[in-house]
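User: I'm writing a tutorial on reading structure tokens. Could you give me a worked example: one chain, its sequence, then its tokens, then a sentence or two explaining what the tokens reveal?
Assistant: Sure. Here is the example chain.
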Amino acid sequence: MSDLRTPLTAWHEAHGAKMAPFAGWLMPIQYEGIIVEHQHTRQHAGLFDICHMGEFLIEGPGADEALSKAVSHNLQTLAPGKCRYGFLLNEKGGVLDDGIIYRFGPDSFMAVVNAACAANDFAVLRARLPQSVKMTDISAETGKIDLQGPESLDVLEKLLAQNFHDLGYFGFRETTWQGSPLLVSRTGYTGELGYELYIAASEAEAFWNALLADERVKPIGLGARDTLRLEAGLPLYGHDLDENHSPAEAGMGRMMTSTADYVGREGAQNIAEVLVPLRIDGRRAVRHGDVVALADGTEVGHVTSGSFAPSLGYVIAFAWVKAAHAGAENFVVRAARTELPAARVEAPFYTEGTARKKLA
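And here are its predicted structure tokens:
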């Protein structure tokens, strides 16, 4: 089966992007180079094609109560116009997927999920929700473009001729662009100020080009998206999160505030391993699966994500480490027949972004 194409795939190919399969989709990895694109996003505004993500509408009488029992998101305190990050868990509390839920009204929601998990997520949610609650997969008809970076607000306001300074972190607003419905949210996956832009798939390329008409904006591939999110200490499902680990093990136990009896609630706080952030001096990257050991050689875990961090000048990584050893300050990573000293640090690794700052 050939790789799936987003509404923007032809644009990427026509503009010289290096393309590669990702989660079953043919996606742009880089245009000018990962470091150049990474730094442009940190300094100006980067544009990301995220049309491959899954979007589901969940609505109808009882949707609030039923969805609260299906996912970990605390919907009791989620107001209309706000969205929240959380998890779809299995019975043991392992993470089937992570994603964001948007509340439109008392019983009206949109779930945004990872592309590789979308089909299974839809099936799991459909099975957990009563038939009286309507679920609609709108992924194919929805375009999703992310605008990230310190200049993203100015770019967005200039294009739409609207004020978005009052749009708070994890808030969203429904508006229009040239007569087409447009949903603008402010969450982000880079640590910078940033916005997610949902528009009809048929309008995605025109909207993409309108954003790129601003000289402060450049297209950014998945390579830089990965280095940006890792610096911001944000996990990637399938690497740093999986169905064999709980949110608490990933350092997200504090987020499990819902009082609903949701699937996996008890196991969500289990801790057998801990997701540990590591600093490795130098530029030699470590990879998913590399062994993590104590200084005496005892193997205690493995790397989940690792990369040279362009904003910092050294290598950073996440690693699953047995809970009994997760407090150690120093480790060794066995990468490509080389042992690299690694120090335990705190995430996020890079904290200069503006994502959580209140706007004037």
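What the tokens reveal: The longest helix spans residues 118-128. The first strand starts at residue 18 and ends at 22.
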